[in-house]
Amino acid sequence: MIIEIDRLTTEDVDDAWRLSSQVGWNQTSDDWQRLLKLFPTTCFAGRLNGELVATSTLATYGDVGWIGMVLVDEAHRRRGYGSKLFERALDAGHDRSLEVIGLDATDAGREVYRQYGFETVVGIDRWAGSLRRLEADEIEGHDADHGHVEPIETVEPIANFDRTHVGTDRRVLLEHVIAADDAFALRVNRNGRTRGYAVARSGRRQQQVGPIVAVDGIDVLVLLSGVAKRVDGPVIVDALRGERTESLFRRFGLDVQRRLHRMTEGNPRSVLDGDAVVAAAGFEWG
Q1: Which residues form the N-acetyltransferase domain (predicted)?
Q2: Could you give the 3-state DSSP secondary structure of residue 94?
Q3: Considering only CA atoms, which of 221, 278, 239 is closest in space to residue 128?
């Protein structure tokens, strides 16, 4: 049966959420609404006789595109529908002449995406568990001169900082997430200058912590300590792989739940992963 591909709409949110829940992903219906709000022309639906059976999305930040939410209903798999939805999102990126198109892939997905010319740039891991709360005297090297953690209500204090360290403008995403009723954001303020920030929001099963962007390890420690004081229950963090993150998140009581691969089309391109980037907004956001 030939699948029809058109735009995903707000009327599809319940069915789209059913697909992501079916595979155990952490997105809420609000996450789907957010994708549709921010990127209405690049969220795609695959339909059979009018029924939503597959999805894909393309988030865009300037010249950067990020493919995510490639899902197929379990009753309709192994018929090539996932490939067609992925290709539709990829074509949308090509139509917009994006400089870089990226995605996060599982081991199995990596082999598929290599056939489309994607190559691995860096590993990205999903850490999960309940954040251990560090006491102030457990954060070596931190003092009043280093800066203090404070909540922020708008994107303004961190927008320029994020653009500088991430390499593209994610203001529209950060603004939308920070304004959500089920989210909060913290920043490290040193004499009026931002040294780092972290955002946390609700998920279907666990709270999602990210993005986290910070100048140095002490800033990350104080941010995660601040997050730990404000969340109850389990969290997940999608963190770029490295020695710093391995020791950091284990110190906070988290363990690796999934290991994925950050990939870009063509030659590997560093994107959304500057030296100060600790954790992504999520696999679907880049």
Answers
A1: 3-140
A2: helix
A3: 239
